[in-house]
Fold this sequence. Notes:
The complex is a heterodimer of chains A (305) and B (386). Chain A is mainly alpha-helical and 305 residues long. The longest helix of chain A is centred in the first third of the chain and has 29 residues, at 2-30. In chain A, helix 3 runs antiparallel to helix 9 and helix 10 packs across helix 11 (236-258). Chain A has helices at residues 2-30, 38-56, 59-83, 88-106, 132-136, 141-159, 161-171, 173-178, 183-209, 221-231, 236-258, 265-284, 287-293. Chain B contains 14 helices and 2 strands, in the order βαααααααααααααβα. A two-stranded antiparallel sheet of chain B has the order 1-2. In chain B, helix 3 (56-81) runs parallel beside helix 7, helix 5 (116-141) packs antiparallel against helix 6 and helix 5 packs antiparallel against helix 10. The radius of gyration of chain B is 22 Å and the shape is globular. The chains are: A mainly alpha (305), B mainly alpha (386). Chains A and B meet through helix 3, helix 4, helix 10, helix 12 and helix 13 of A and helix 6, helix 11, helix 13 and helix 14 of B.
Amino acid sequence: MDQVALLIAATLNSGTVLAFAALGLLINERAGIVNLGAEGMMLVAAVAGFAIAVHTGNEWLAFGAGAIAGAVLAAAFGVLVIWLNTNQYATGLALSLFGTGFSAFAGIRYTQEKLGERTDFQIPVLADLPFVGPALFRQHPMVYIAIALTIAIAWFLYRSRAGLVLRAVGESPESAHALGYPVRRIRLLAVIFGGALCGVAGAYISVVYTHLWVEGMIAGKGWIALALTTFATWRPARVLLGAYLFGGVTMLQFQLQGEGVQISSQFLTMLPYLATILVLVLISRNASFIRVNMPASIGKPFFPG
Amino acid sequence: MLRLEARPEPSRAMSIASPLIALAITVVIGTLLFILLGKDPLRGLAVFFVEPVKSVYALTELAMKATPLTLIALGLAVCFRSNVWNIGAEGQFIVGAIAASGVAMMATPSSGAWFFVPVLAAGVLGGMLWAAIVAFLRDRFNANEILVSLMLVYVAVQLLNYFVYGPWKDPAGYNFPQTITFLKSTQVPRLFAGSRVNVGSIVALVAVAAFWVLLFRTYAGFQLQVGGLAPAAARYAGFSSRSALWTALLLSGGMAGLAGGLEVAGPLGQLTPHVPAGYGFAAIIVAFVGRLHPLGIVFSAVLMSMFYIGGELAQSRLGLPKSLTGVFQGLLLFTLLACDTLIAYRIRWKSARGGAPAAPAAMARLDDAPLNPVVATSTLPAREGA
């Protein structure tokens, strides 16, 4: 029983990383921009956050630093893609390659550093409940913030005027432009927001999740987050569920290893990546289903001249 | 204020000048970075741009690194020109190396000197197999090739680890995760005594010619490129987007696999966890900087291997981390993409009011293929008719 509770807790924790990144990417894809630079932004943010955590010892400043790092990189990507009309895929790829190199370069002096012991969080009273206490109520505050953020983003997209404009920009930038909305500025803001959330996710990994910095430590989570938005057909609630699902698959690998299952650890490590491929296959199988749900102008440049 | 104005026609001069401008900007940023790090910028630049071409030995080392980059980038150029986004060449490279090693370990002391041929063939097949998974899932299930090919890189790394930590571990290797050192007969013949450069570099040059012919002198190459530049026109002409997808992926997978085979049957001589050196990702940059043109790729592969060797020298001589290579590679691609804007647009000073309305060419660019060599965007998850 305790075992199960711990597994649930670990799943929520690891799903939170993906949730932050994928929610950010969801917003910029809803505005019509695909940013393949997620992995690079998360890596740089992981270093930035870790460095701040080492020097100040404050987690929240570290998340802030991660968000700023992600936002700055995303802004560079956004200017290139939105104002210089560069190819979105190639530019995102460039950002990922740059981020991989830059984070390794900047992080080299932090590879030996360790963070102090993490304070335990628990919600009073609820945390003492049997089973549900350890499973749900002893998490890092960011886990709950991710849930709140999902609700906030869902409300923003479907209930607010600004969200409607954002969706319009992603569906038909020409119409939004004709109505007088500053399409390019809105897209840039969406891209920066996406970068900031990817940054928070990256900082969460190094500061809370692993407590250390290792070169390339994001290990494809940025790409998995990109796959998640497709998997979730661009809906916030489904993004959160998908993130927990993938968090669960990641945790399953450790669980199986712990139980001494006779499979080489390498095959267990493959699981999240294979699961991503499987999920992509299942969801993309029906092309028209995807097309109905997909922001219509996603990946297409808008250049009013 | 500065404005971008569409050129009536894409500038050919700019498409050649753009990589040079990008390189210049990267060098300027690099110089600033050296100053910021408290290093002599002249020495820093010399390590990257002079040392790698200083002696005959240095040149052969340069050729050795440029070989896999050229091979992989040639395949990727075909992919990107056909609008197939294979970014998992690193994985295809790794599986090629694994397959080649599997055959190399079958050699016996009596095997002839020709044994490297089946070793390389296995490398090609391994890479093709890995890319075929991407093609199959895209073709049959419409799964996005960017994400699938990238996920398969991580799977390939684990597969490599499985073999070198498991069944293929050298029993006499002090428990190091590596295979036996392959027999001499499996090794690709070297070109000169005293240097590590081998027949692989010749193969790469032959491949450059072959890809030039394929892209610019054959009907198949024409079909591939039409599919990339104007999918609607290709459909109307009856060119199959499915066969373009398979051709591009199998070709690029095979080339990456060949590069992987050449690494284990050449400079490495065994399979180790250090086989993935990032060539598969660097080759993406090589392909774009080389304008997706076989000849351009040769130059950009040499440039990129200067970055590699420069990074290693920067570590040993200046005490800077080797990852500086990655920073410069990423910067180069970033600035290149920005500079490529100048192929289709020119920068004009304009007063805030009274500017001429956008030229029709700019509107046309929205629907037609972009004029820069980085081919048209398609919608992310779905491609019609796939």
